[in-house]
Structure formats: C-alpha cells, structure tokens
Specification:
It is built from six helices and no strands. With about 100 residues, the protein is an all-alpha fold. α1 packs antiparallel against α3, α3 crosses α5 and α4 packs across α5. The longest helix has 14 residues. The radius of gyration is 16 Å and the shape is globular.
C-alpha cells in the first residue's frame, strides 16, 4: 500500500493537544477547524471527505496540512494581521457569548 496523500502521524501528546484545541471551538475560532482537519487526516480520512464533512474548501484542508508539517501546533492559529485592531476584546466577546447563549 502506497503513502496516502496528506497522511499525518501524531504522537500521543500531539493528538491530545489537537483534541483540546478542537474542543475549544468558541475560543480559538478557525484553529478549532484546523485541529479537526489534522485529527481527521491522522485517521486516514481523505482531503475531499474532510472538506465535505467540515464544510471547508479543499484548498483549506491542503493548506492546513502544509502549515501543520511546517509549523506544528503553532501553525493552526492565525498570524497577526495589519490594520485596525479589533474593537471587541476577549472579555467583551466572552460576555457577549454568555448573554447570547442564555435563555430569555
């Protein structure tokens, strides 16, 4: 059997860290989806199936795998961008989530 496109091997520590990142979806945003891409890749799921399941593009899956190989766990998180800083800080976003998720 040949090497699968995008096949990724994970250590126990890497898998654990990725699972925590994937579960922290509301806090880490896109990093959660990227962690799920890596976990599914490690299970042998193909890029098309991952893209379909997660509702992302095939390009996103391939770029995520590349970033993982080059940068490891740090590659899952967005890099700082130029431009105006966000007006809503983390404390405000946590409060907003709490209010929105509270039953009226």
């Amino acid at each position: 059997m040949g090497k699968r496109e995008g096949a990724i091997r994970l250590t126990v520590q890497e898998r654990s860290l990725l699972q925590r990142t994937a579960r922290a979806g509301d806090q880490s945003g896109r990093a959660s989806v990227r962690a799920t891409v890596i976990l599914m890749s490690a299970e042998g799921t193909g890029a098309k199936a991952i893209a379909r399941t997660l509702g992302v593009g095939l390009r996103t899956v391939r770029l995520t795998r590349r970033r993982w190989r080059l940068e490891g766990h740090d590659g899952l998180f967005d890099k700082p961008r130029s431009g105006r800083p966000p007006r809503a800080d983390a404390k405000y976003l946590r409060l907003m989530r709490k209010v929105v998720c509270t039953d009226p």
